[in-house]
Each structure stands twice: as structure tokens, then as C-alpha cells.
Design brief:
heterodimer; A: 164 residues; mainly alpha; 6 helices; 76% helix; B: 383 residues; two-stranded antiparallel ribbon; 17 helices; 67% helix
Chain lengths: 164, 383
């Protein structure tokens, strides 16, 4: 049951990603395909016992970031024609090629996979992730937040016409 | 498996089968009472009007039999998909809301929640964030500028309030130390001493017996009063009902994102909006109003008291029924409160909606997190 669901979600995420690349003409449909990809990825993470990452994948990427993409697409009324065929075609070819590589990797590597290791109790929950984040990886965490702060200040400076 | 299906059927039937049609009636009737008029009483069956209670049935008949129009130039697939995306999150949120506690019958435990997952509250936020697409896609796919304006408003409003909604309940997570909704509800099935801090500070230790009796239920609303107000404002803004209905704004942009919808497709948007009222009620009741807990009477007290006269099994069953009814009473109270707000406040101007979110609720939520953390550290330190 778990394996079956894993393949369903995996196939859905690849289909969503492909849909996004192939829908260059219709940008909103492309963004919705990206949502499908993100939600399916969330399902894959949950099936891999990474519950927190899975739910954050849906909450942050599917629920917030793609909404902002859509907002910008609608605000600027972006259409695929603005990209031009010389940039559309490589995107499509690369997308299909990436999907092909994935399928090949699955067919070749799948028989060689070792059985999954035993997980520690509470693996992937918010407690385990939080503890790891604020003890072992606290430096990386703080560096990331500094980077985000710098990006935020940069955006404010760019958006404000006159600094008083 | 059978147990899960029975629980699922119960919560969905109560919310969608009983409360949803009643709410459409309450909406009209409460509006009529508040505006001092007689109100919905025109739908009649052989002359029986039943104080307007036939209106929900008339609504459904009307919506089902109306023509379903897809405007020219619309994106057909997304136009059809949008109402579904709007409705499904409201239904699946019900999965993690506990409508009762844990009861021991014979040798097995009965837990009255469909899915008892460790990250329950994150699940609610994640599912709620998907609902944004319903409104956004509907407006875009309709090929109508008014609709597009509505969906732009919807996307910016909903995404802003999602951020603050998550932040406003961080204090609650800190107090209860869990994201699991049944655990949160169970933690509220107790009382705390209102003047207990005097003992901690050493002013009067131990507390005199008569002061020891002044107790409040350990509900979220008493432990996180500011969090309650902020969360209620955010979650009502997420539902896009008045006073936060700028995305629909009849007097400005006709009907906003669902202007080009008719028949049952419009009915799905309507259902989503109305279903979210009891879902919000259930969520707020679970987080802040003690869920299924009876104030001042813990589960142990009820079971202990009743089992002396009638035996253990009957007492547990009695307690279960009392708890489910208490939960539903709290949900009904929250529905009444939302209706009261809906018919009292006029619509916010669009910039006011955004200002309220980013300039008032966001700083207050962050302050709430820090104050809560400081208080928790102080109490732990004094203990």
C-alpha cells in the first residue's frame, strides 16, 4: 500500500513538473501544474516518514510561493508568447529529457535498492527536526536567516523610490 | 477501518448535513432580526412555511436546476476545477478536529478524531493554504476583468493572513507544548488557580484554601487571550466573508472571483464559504474554548461521579455523549458569534484589510510569542 502510494505520488510529481515545462504558452496552467508537483512531492516526503518536511512543502511551496508566482503572472499579464520560440523549445526539450533520465534511473537503480534502514522513534516529526536544527545545524540556520534578512532589506531598498 | 469510516461519516454528516443547511437559514434569519424585519419566510410547501426552514431546500433545488454557463474565452478546465479546489480543503480539515476525547470501553480505547496526527495543526494550515487557489484560479479562468480584480484581491489577502494566522497561534503551541489537536483539547480539560502566581512569587504560600477555590478552566482563551483575538480575525479573513469580503465586494467589483459562475458551480463556492463557518467554529472551539471539555468538570470527575450509581461502562458512554454535545454547543456558539460579526461590521476598504494584517496583527502576534515565551521561562524559573 505504501509502495503503491509512493509510486502514485512520484508519478504525479513528475507529471506536474512536465506539465509546467510543456505549458509555456499558458502560464497560469503551468503554475497550477507546479502546484500539483509540489503537493505530490509533499505526499512523497510524508511516505518517506519526513512528516514535517512534507507538510512544510505543501504549506510553504504549494500554499505560498506559487500563489505569489500566480499573483505576479496575473498582475503583469504574462503570456507565453513573450518568451519566443527560441527559448520555449530548449525548455521543453530539457524538461522531457530530465523526465527520461529519471525514468531510466528508476528502471536501472530500482532492483539494486537496499531495504530501508530502521528509523529512530519520532523521526521526521517537528520535535526531531527542531532539535536537530537548533543544536547541530544552528550555524547554518542562522546563516540562512541572515541571508534572508539581507534579501528582505534589498527588496525594501529597491522598492522604495526615495530613502528618507 | 470501520471505526474510521463511522467517525468520518459522523463528523461530515453533522457539519455538512445538519449545520450547513441550518447556517444558510441562520444567516438570513439573524440578518432579519438584526435589521428589524421579518425575513426569509417565502418558501412554502402546501402553505407550510416552518419559519423559513424550507429555504435551504429551495436553495439547493434552485442551484441544481439552473443552467451552468461557462463564459466564452474562459479556460474551461480551470473554470471547472476552481470551485472544487475551493470546497475540498474545507471538508478535509475536519479530519484532524477532535469531537470528543479518549474513552476506555472494555479493553480498547475509543478516540473521537478521524486522524490523530502529530502535526495536526500544521496540516490545518497547509490544507487551508491550498484553498487560496480556488479563488485565484476562478477569477483568472473566467476571462473577466472584474473577476480578475477579485482574484488578485483574494490572493494577496489570503496569503497575508495565512502568515499571521500561523504566527498568532505559536503562543498556543508554546503553552500546550504540542501541535496535536486531541492533546490540545485534552490539556484544556482541567482548571488552573487564578491566583496561583501569588504562591509562585512567594506572597502567600501555600495559598489559603478559599483562594485555592477560585479556578478557571485551562482554556486557550484564558491562557492566550490576545492569541484568540488575532487568530479569530485571521481565520475570518481567510474565509473572505464580511467584513473581510473585499475579494467579492459587491458594490465595487460586482461579485469578484465567482462572478462568472452559475448553477451548482456557484453553489460549490457558496457551500465552501458556508461550510468554513462551522469548520472555523470547530477549530476555534478546539484551540481556544476547550474543545469537548465541560468547564470545571473534568472527564475523571464525570466518569467517577456517574459510575458510583450506574457502573463504569454506562458512565463512560454518558461522558462520551456529554462531551460530543458540549463540543457541538461550542461550535454553535462560534457560528453565532461569526454571524454576529458578519452582520455588525461593514466591509473594510481593501487597503484597510492589508494594513490590519501587516501593521497591526503581525507585530502583535510576534509580541505575543515573545511575551508568552518570557512568561513560560519565568514560571519555570520560579517553580
Amino acid at each position: 500500500m505504501r509502495a503503491l502510494l509512493f509510486y502514485v505520488f512520484g508519478a504525479l510529481s513528475v507529471a506536474g513538473a512536465l506539465g509546467m515545462v510543456l505549458n509555456v504558452r499558458n502560464t497560469v496552467a503551468g503554475a497550477m501544474s507546479l502546484v500539483l508537483c509540489m503537493v505530490a512531492l509533499g505526499g512523497v516526503y510524508v511516505l518517506l516518514d519526513a512528516y514535517l518536511v512534507g507538510v512544510l512543502q505543501i504549506l510553504v511551496y504549494a500554499g505560498a510561493i506559487v500563489v505569489l508566482f500566480l499573483f505576479v503572472v496575473m498582475l503583469l499579464n504574462l503570456r507565453g508568447e513573450q518568451l519566443g520560440p527560441e527559448r520555449q523549445l530548449p525548455a521543453k526539450v530539457l524538461g522531457v529529457a530530465a523526465a527520461g533520465v529519471m525514468l531510466l534511473a528508476f528502471l536501472v537503480l530500482q532492483p539494486a535498492l537496499a531495504p530501508a534502514a530502521e528509523l529512530a522513534p519520532g523521526f521526521g516529526g517537528y520535535r526531531a527536526v527542531g532539535l536537530a536544527l537548533f543544536t547541530d545545524w544552528v550555524l547554518a540556520f542562522e546563516a540562512t536567516s541572515l541571508l534572508l534578512l539581507a534579501a528582505m532589506i534589498g527588496a525594501v531598498v529597491l522598492a522604495k523610490r526615495k530613502i528618507d | 477501518m470501520v471505526e474510521i469510516i463511522v467517525k468520518m461519516l459522523f463528523i461530515v454528516l453533522v457539519m455538512m448535513g445538519a449545520l450547513l443547511p441550518l447556517i444558510t437559514w441562520v444567516e438570513r434569519k439573524q440578518a432579519a432580526i438584526m435589521q428589524d424585519r421579518i425575513g426569509a419566510n417565502r418558501a412554502d410547501l402546501f402553505g407550510i412555511r416552518a419559519i423559513g426552514l424550507l429555504h435551504p431546500a429551495a436553495d439547493v433545488l434552485k442551484l441544481i436546476t439552473k443552467e451552468d454557463v461557462v463564459p466564452r474565452g474562459a479556460n474551461r478546465v480551470l473554470h471547472v476545477l476552481a470551485p472544487v479546489i475551493a470546497l475540498v480543503p474545507a471538508i478535509v480539515t475536519l479530519a484532524v478536529i477532535p469531537f470528543g476525547g479518549t474513552y476506555r470501553f472494555g479493553g480498547s480505547d475509543l478516540k473521537l478524531v478521524v486522524a490523530d496526527i502529530d502535526w495536526g495543526m500544521l496540516y490545518v494550515l497547509a490544507v487551508g493554504s491550498i484553498a487560496t487557489y480556488g479563488a485565484v484560479i476562478a477569477g483568472w479562468a473566467s476571462n473577466n476583468n472584474w473577476s480578475l480584480l477579485g482574484s488578485m484581491r483574494a490572493s494577496s489577502q489570503m496569503i497575508s493572513y495565512e502568515v499571521t494566522m500561523g504566527l498568532s497561534i505559536v503562543g498556543l503551541f508554546m503553552v500546550f507544548g504540542t501541535l496535536r489537536l486531541p492533546e490540545m483539547a485534552a490539556a484544556q480539560d482541567q482548571t488552573f488557580r487564578l491566583l496561583g502566581f501569588l504562591e509562585l512569587l512567594g506572597v502567600a504560600s501555600p495559598l489559603p484554601a478559599w483562594l485555592d477555590w477560585i479556578r478557571l478552566p485551562a482554556w486557550g482563551i484564558f491562557l492566550q487571550p490576545l492569541g484568540f483575538l488575532l487568530f479569530l480575525a485571521c481565520i475570518m479573513a481567510e474565509n473572505k466573508r464580511p467584513p473581510f469580503d473585499a475579494p467579492e465586494g459587491e458594490s465595487e467589483i460586482i461579485a469578484g472571483y465567482h462572478m462568472e459562475y452559475s448553477g451548482m458551480r456557484f453553489g460549490l463556492f457558496y457551500t465552501a464559504e458556508f461550510l468554513e463557518v462551522p469548520v472555523i467554529g470547530a477549530l476555534v472551539a478546539t484551540l481556544f474554548l476547550g474543545g469537548w471539555a465541560v468547564p470545571w468538570l473534568s472527564q475523571a470527575t464525570i466518569v467517577g461521579g456517574v459510575s458510583q450509581a450506574f457502573g463504569e461502562g454506562f458512565a463512560t458512554g454518558f461522558c462520551l455523549i456529554v462531551h460530543v454535545l458540549t463540543f457541538l454547543a461550542k461550535v454553535v456558539f462560534m457560528i453565532w458569534l461569526q454571524m454576529l460579526i458578519r452582520w455588525t461590521l461593514p466591509r473594510f476598504r481593501y487597503d484597510q484589510v492589508m494594513d490590519l494584517c501587516w501593521k497591526i496583527i503581525l507585530p502583535l502576534s510576534i509580541a505575543n510569542v515573545f511575551v508568552t515565551g518570557g512568561l513560560i521561562l519565568l514560571v519555570e524559573g520560579l517553580r
